[in-house]
């Protein structure tokens, strides 16, 4: 049922750019396989079949708890261990979780809260059972923390986080597999050329080293291009999902945190996050548009302007 719902959601009009990206991904992976196995002279249709099989497998892994764990690892999300931090944030998290679950029972059980060391106040949801806050979020007013968590539960309720999983984790799995194949081939070539020491003397060793460096360079290029292609995929996901941000804001509003979310949006607009958070923020809708939508929903927030 989960995978059926996922494929229904990915075919929405707003996700068409991402769907095109995923289809192109199969051809890109096939091309990489063809390039990596250039000495094996396999036809492109076989590379395409291998690429499709690899990508389907990677999608299932990405949408599993393994994919969720990989993304947590990439973003430094860890279990909260300090007693004072747990005593402060856990009751807040539980209160919002209970309200979100009543509003949308499809939110999974056992959603867990994690934290990374970023000092800028922020949060993100990933997979089906992960919400990660930054350490800086602990120092925000309690109601604004609730508004933020309500927004992230909105993403879980609408399954917005699956696209990031399949782009980031899916590509990581495929590129790791391809890199493994490449390294095995390089090792075999290196061993083969080392054997020329007994035939070609010092010149054979020199040729072996040059051959190994050549294949290492090709491997680095393949890894670099895969990384760049993944970044493009993430940007496409974020650019095509602006409407999801408005929907997550509305979810937080329906939980009763509309005004607090408006205050939060106004207060952190000048914050400069790092890593994934910076990428996400750069692709989010304008904060004034988000506040305006919340006001249209019924939020009574009004900023104080000084003349």
From TrEMBL:
GO terms for biological process: proteolysis. InterPro entries: HtpX_protease, Peptidase_M48. The chain crosses the membrane at residues 18-38, 44-71, 163-184, 190-210, 217-238. Its cofactor is Zn(2+). One of its GO terms (molecular function) is metalloendopeptidase activity. Gene3D superfamilies: Metalloproteases ('zincins'), catalytic domain. Binds 1 zinc ion per subunit. Residues 106-296 form the Peptidase M48 domain. Keywords: Cell membrane, Hydrolase, Membrane, Metal-binding, Metalloprotease, Protease, Transmembrane, Transmembrane helix, Zinc. Pfam families: Peptidase_M48 (PF01435). It comes from the Bacteria. Belongs to the peptidase M48 family. This is M48 family metalloprotease. It comes from Streptococcus salivarius.
């Amino acid at each position: 049922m989960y995978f059926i719902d996922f494929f229904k959601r990915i075919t929405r009009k707003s996700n068409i750019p991402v769907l095109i990206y995923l289809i192109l991904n199969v051809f890109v992976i096939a091309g990489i396989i063809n390039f990596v196995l250039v000495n094996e002279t396999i036809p492109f249709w076989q590379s395409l079949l291998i690429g499709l099989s690899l990508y389907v497998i990677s999608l299932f892994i990405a949408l599993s708890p393994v994919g969720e764990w990989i993304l947590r690892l990439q973003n430094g999300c860890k279990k909260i261990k300090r007693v004072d931090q747990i005593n402060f944030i856990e009751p807040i998290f539980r209160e919002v979780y209970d309200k979100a679950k009543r509003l949308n029972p499809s939110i999974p059980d056992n959603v867990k809260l994690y934290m990374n060391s970023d000092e800028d106040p922020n949060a993100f949801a990933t997979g089906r059972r992960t919400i990660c806050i930054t350490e800086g979020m602990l120092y925000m007013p309690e109601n604004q923390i609730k508004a933020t968590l309500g927004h992230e539960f909105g993403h879980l309720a609408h399954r917005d986080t699956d696209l990031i999983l399949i782009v980031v984790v899916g590509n990581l799995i495929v590129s790791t597999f391809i890199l493994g194949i490449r390294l095995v081939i390089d090792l075999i070539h290196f061993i083969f050329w080392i054997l020329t020491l007994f035939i070609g003397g010092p010149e054979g060793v020199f040729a072996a080293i040059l051959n190994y460096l050549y294949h290492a360079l090709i491997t680095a290029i393949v890894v670099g291009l895969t990384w760049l292609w993944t970044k493009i995929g993430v940007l496409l996901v974020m650019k095509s999902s602006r409407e999801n941000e408005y929907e997550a804001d509305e979810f937080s509003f329906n939980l009763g945190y509309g005004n607090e979310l408006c205050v939060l949006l106004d207060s952190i607009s000048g914050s400069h996050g790092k890593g994934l958070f910076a990428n996400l923020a750069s692709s989010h809708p304008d904060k004034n548009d988000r506040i305006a939508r919340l006001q249209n929903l019924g939020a009574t927030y009004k900023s104080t302007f000084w003349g």
